[in-house]
Amino acid sequence: MRIGLLTGGGDCPGLNAAIRAVVKQGLGEYGHTIIGFRNGWKGVVDGDVRTMSREDIRNVLPQGGTLLGTARFHPHSADGGLDGVMATLEAERIEALICIGGDGTLHAANKVAEQGIKIVAIPKTIDNDVYGTDLSIGFHTAVNIATEAIDRIHTTAESHNRVMVVEVMGRHAGWIAVNAGIAGGAELVLAPEEPFDMDRIVKFLKHRHRSHANFSIVVVAEGALPKEGSSMQYEAQLGKFGEIIAGAIGERVANEIATRTGFDTRLTILGHVQRGGTPTPTDRILGSRFGVAAVDAISRGETNVMTALRNEEVVLVPLEEIAGKVKHVPDDLLRVARVLA
Ligand code: F6P
């Protein structure tokens, strides 16, 4: 078979493990030809292709990013995009496509599948908000990075008697904030799932600093928002594609805390540091498992499905079941973050 392969949307650590597994399993086990598209769906429209060989995947396991390149480009939203996709797939005689991506890429995959193309998707995003899978590639590494950052911020917070606000990624779900907040021992975690009340935050911090501590760490997800009707009026700051702008909520929360408590307060925006560098073994293993499973699925004739981790097992879920949905942090995990504050 001639199988196309692409990585789309934001990059993350662990993508190369998945690419490597697809190439190894495709070439070695089945004798397929793997055609890599550069820069996600953009490369499909542009016909930017390369035939993947074992040479391409040598020593890539510890490398972050994606050796295929990626782009935030959705063919169904671009003029003539879907026609371009179909033309390239026909010219390259692609029989099935493996798409590694987050919600945007998978939504596009669903649109391309509707045109009759066989698709198997692999979920990746440091945000861990792809519906239908317990874990997405990249999340484990991002939580490690954010936790290490919080550990480091602890010592300087304590030395300077400061409130340290740490903004982490997560526009629609607070997986990184909640997990790194718990692991790093943050006093407060603000996640999109649970709008916050600035009055309560201020009361809590004042009480804590008066009674038993001289510093506090507040972890804020990019998509956190105050409760409607509460004393902090705020509207999410959006960019030209309607995306939440990094740093905006962190800055506002830090300013509110500084003004209302009088405590010396600083903001750290972790940003793309969370997406870079060496993947953890967990992300390498997850990427490898998903890559092998995707090639097996295509070889069995499965189509329009996504590989997913459920209760330690890799399974396949229909793309249409997950398209357009967000996996939110469950209440029990949010509660642990609250209890430990
Ligand atoms: O890929 C997911 C993500 O890292 C989000 O956590 C973050 O909000 C967004 O991408 C940043 O996107 P960009 O790299 O396009 O600025």
Automatic annotation (TrEMBL):
One GO cellular component, as annotated: 6-phosphofructokinase complex
Class of enzymatic activity (EC top level): transferase
SUPFAM superfamilies named among the record's database cross-references: Phosphofructokinase
Assigned keywords, A-Z: ATP-binding, Cytoplasm, Glycolysis, Kinase, Magnesium, Metal-binding, Nucleotide-binding, Transferase
InterPro entries the UniProt entry points to: ATP_PFK, ATP_PFK_prok-type, Phosphofructokinase_CS, Phosphofructokinase_dom, Phosphofructokinase_III, PKF_sf
Gene Ontology biological process terms from the UniProt entry: canonical glycolysis; fructose 1,6-bisphosphate metabolic process; fructose 6-phosphate metabolic process
Domain Phosphofructokinase: 2-298
Residues the entry annotates as binding Mg(2+): D103
Predominant localisation class: cytoplasm
Entry binding sites for substrate: T125, I126, D127, R162, M169, G170, R171, E222, R266, H272, V273, Q274, R275
Enzyme Commission designation: 2.7.1.11
One Gene Ontology term of the molecular function aspect: 6-phosphofructokinase activity
Pathway(s) served: Carbohydrate degradation; glycolysis; D-glyceraldehyde 3-phosphate and glycerone phosphate from D-glucose: step 3/4
Protein purpose: Catalyzes the phosphorylation of D-fructose 6-phosphate to fructose 1,6-bisphosphate by ATP, the first committing step of glycolysis.
PANTHER family xref list: ATP-DEPENDENT 6-PHOSPHOFRUCTOKINASE 3, PHOSPHOFRUCTOKINASE
Quaternary organization: Homodimer or homotetramer.
NCBIfam families xref list: PRK03202.1 (NF002872)
Protein name as it appears in the record: ATP-dependent 6-phosphofructokinase
Protein source organism: Sanguibacter keddieii (strain ATCC 51767 / DSM 10542 / NCFB 3025 / ST-74)
